[in-house]
């Protein structure tokens, strides 16, 4: 089949790739761009392990032909921070043991990130709804919910402190948080 | 957060050492690895449940461009099995296929699509045979048995054990319960699909990188099946993306990847797709059970006769052990004065069953705990009290000769009763709401190796470098349970460091010493003890050198806060790094070893080696449910659990295992089943094979009971499997409390609940479950073992 | 890893271009919207199109607009957008609820209303990879001639599993279908055929472009109920879309009840016959409707849970839907 030249935008970088139209974003990320943080558990949209953000929304990279996301901003787990510069959400996730085998974790973290970016103060029900498309076999889900909840609470507390000191600082912090994210 | 008494690391809540790698997606799982010039392997699998292979024509496939290697059964003529007593399996079907999905031809090509296309080009001429899809069909065995070499046809293994004369126990009974129960098979469904890469090394060596729980056993089997010296094989366990027992066996893709790598001189990767994972299975056996228990009016058990039929699927796997396990642990939780157990495992034309979290114990545990609940109702004793009356006591011998040391079963029961308000709720909640109770016992590591060996079960090396860097080398594998953190914590505690200061190198049969693997909840207890010994020996080496400098005896040093202190004069200390450099300058390379071999615990009878463990964990658990009487749908509202952990090495990890175990137990209780339509799985997908999602997960309240096991490292026992067990019967018992019906089957689905309620309303008894048990005489030679001496004189097992 | 078969790919920017491509390539092209249904079926080799025509660039097919007092939803509007749309939530909460119940958050971000309406019928025998699908004989929806669910059946019984179809059918919504040089509008109910293979009345080359909701005020209340064992991921084992218009004294003036997932097409019940002119909680009428519903439903052992239980649930959920209409 004819290969297609695609100009993908992944984690803020231009990534030109030449691929068959039947190649999914999952394959392109893992096999062409070597971004193996995005996992796969079924390749049929039934587990959530391959969740990435497409223009900020969680989507399943196994169900997206790469050609369909040309022009969109694709965000993968690699963009959230490495082991030495983790996102505070990831720190809390690790601290609580919300990752056991860790295989479903990148997908969950991306679903959680999408929620936290759009909903500053999610309720427990909001959190459950946001991760209802991700399966985990290790944890029983509690620590995952707790990690997201703790992060949101801490962020709110931090922001309250910032507000009381200086509204400009809040903005700076938000930008910093975003940059880290 | 009570534990952590007197320790710096142990008993705490430190973040797991691999935590940040995992949450940032940097952990390299098996399919994340790639190697230059790599080929991709795929299997052609059997479309038939039972058929003879007349001819395999691979000529077209082999000639296809991009195809580099084609293997058939003839390339692996040596049968193998994880247990030497049950070597009935071939890497690729040899002359027969025995289940749909069995690998028949392996092909390596430049990419998966080419390998797949080549598989489609293979022509296999099959002669179909009648398939045995159920226990009953296997027992009846109307045609050719599945394995003609098995002595008793489709009966793979039969066990008959009797401890004392059970008739005598029954003679003392004032009340009996006789029940039949069926526990459907289910599977592990790790989120990571199995994956491995065989990489040729030098001219005649191969390294296998694989998502496996047991690299050591894999190493042994690969050498055997490939007819290579063990010295030519290296197995590296990659971090497993979930195991649960499903990556214990050594699989066709692992053997094939190694053979193909050696044959082609190129790395060969196999990654199974999800449906292949379902057919690869090795999961929970379907078990049909019959149990008769005699009681006195006061609730004391006088005797038990337990029978099981296991539906094993097409091969032996670890099924001999599973068979024993269906009868092993009943006397380990209750003081049963007379006990008889008969278990039979049958071969059927289905994917192979094997070990899944709880290995052979969840099925009998579900049955017995439901039976105890029924007895409690009949005897008018509350269910928790009935357990207390019969609970095994610390430091006792079970009737089947298991040595129980630390045991917090009574404390667990009392704790759960207290925190759940069980006494105020049971029988008193409004219709539709109910609470159920159950307990369990589980092993902290099997006392026996899978193949005969007198060597240690766990060996650990601790190395310290000139800059103070510490490495802990262990053959154990981290399948998510946190074994790396357990090792790091133990070594850090002894050397006065943080867990994060210890680099754990694990699961590599070339660079790490032997460990049998991550199964049977053995790693913390066994490898933890080896790590403790190695760390202490390292500490002693360094202490001797530093003490000489301080001018004090070696045992007057203290290792804490990254320093070596003079215990005589606490003002004097040496930084850890300086102490290491000093010791190395005097002693040369700093390394120490530790080993763990369990004490000889075998019972004095044939089969007495399966089940004994150096320590047992205990769990009590209550589940509260809300059942919709119109639909039968069950909403699990809350779970209370108390687990006798001995002592937690890391509380966060322990709570994680408790919650994960309860999750998996509830998921099995409510949803999971390997259901077949004729020879095919009905639901080989993550959508159709239902597992609990975040929506169905109830709140869990966990309490840890610390009994400080005398032989566990820092008093620790297992937690990976125990808490799963009681979740299942507690749920069934809660359903009874809610709507008054007995579901004597797992899973407990809404249709069963609704139909049982309808039967109850019609006066046909509110029960769904099997009604008959095959009256098939066991083929096993009856083994009659004496009651342990500890049971004489009314001593009921106490080891005084 | 499970991968897609090879195909040619086109991504037109207009409906006209899309219909032209579909026209030119005859039956050898397939439309790709959100892909949550098509991509898995391609990966399972249930379809092997030569050309996949992706609609994601056809902006005109996305979004919700108002026209002549009716809400018009572009077929490419994501299910998440349908579920969250303020006007839809205000006027047709049952539709929002149905959309919000589909799959998972990720699937709702990707999946479209049009895709859900045209969702392929489902069957546990059929929805497997080709290796297993064909093991023991292929079924008629695949490459074979038999049905493994109803032995000896001449037709396929795969299940209509759309959650939005029963609601939109109950509401009396309409679909705008465009093909090369042609266009038509049909009621939602008319889109479906009770046949697991030939389950749509969609003509070759036709593109579903818009969903036209009824004028606001046509119904007083609408309801959507869904039976499944888990609160997420799962397709319906049964769903009910219902709508009612009350007359004086809360007498039912008009009522519409449609069952989904109990046949190869949504089943519109004769609710008007049983409940028209009566109180909605008229016990005799409700019981009659329940019995009628159970008769119309043909759950079979081709999805999760026993079909006997699912049949029983038809009655329970029919009654519950009526209750929801007055809740």
Would you give an account of this structure?
- The complex is a heterotrimer of chains A (181), B (800) and C (327).
- Chain A is of the alpha+beta class.
- Chain A folds into two domains: 4-79, Ubiquitin-like (UB roll) (Roll), CATH 3.10.20.30; 81-180, DNA polymerase, domain 1 (Orthogonal Bundle), CATH 1.10.150.120.
- Chain A is 41% helix and 14% strand.
- In chain A, strands 2-1-5-3-4 form a five-stranded mixed sheet, sandwiched between helices.
- The longest helix of chain A has 24 residues, at 142-165.
- Chain A starts with a strand and ends with a helix.
- By secondary structure, chain B is α+β, with helices and mostly antiparallel strands.
- Chain B has three domains: 37-129 and 194-271, Aldehyde Oxidoreductase, domain 3 (Alpha-Beta Complex); 287-448 and 603-789, 2-Layer Sandwich (Aldehyde Oxidoreductase, domain 4), CATH 3.30.365.10; 456-596, Aldehyde oxidase/xanthine dehydrogenase, molybdopterin binding domain (Aldehyde Oxidoreductase, domain 4).
- Chain B is built from 20 helices and 34 strands.
- In chain B, the strands form nine sheets. A seven-stranded mixed sheet of chain B has the order 3-5-1-12-9-10-11, with helices on both faces. A seven-stranded mixed sheet of chain B has the order 32-8-13-14-15-7-34. A four-stranded mixed sheet of chain B has the order 18-26-27-30, sandwiched between helices.
- The longest helix of chain B is centred in the last third of the chain and has 28 residues, at 523-550.
- The model of chain B has no long low-confidence stretch (mean pLDDT 97).
- Chain C has a five-stranded antiparallel sheet with strand order 4-5-8-6-7.
- Chain C has 327 residues and is α+β, with helices and mostly antiparallel strands.
- Chain C has a domain at 221-326: CO dehydrogenase flavoprotein, C-terminal domain (Enolase-like, domain 1), CATH 3.30.390.50.
- Chain C has helices spanning 15-24, 38-43, 79-84, 86-91, 93-100, 105-110, 113-117, 130-134, 164-171, 271-275, 283-296, 307-326; strands at 8-10, 29-32, 51-54, 64-67, 70-74, 174-179, 182-187, 207-212, 221-227, 238-246, 252-260, 267-268.
- Chains in contact: A-B, A-C, B-C.
- Chain B binds chain C through residues 31, 45-48, 100-101, 112-113, 271, 273-275, 279, 630-633, 671, 677-685, 687-688, 690, 692-696, 749-751, 754-755, and chain C through 1-3, 124-125, 127-129, 131-132, 134-136, 148, 227, 229-235, 304-306, 308-309, 312-313, 316.
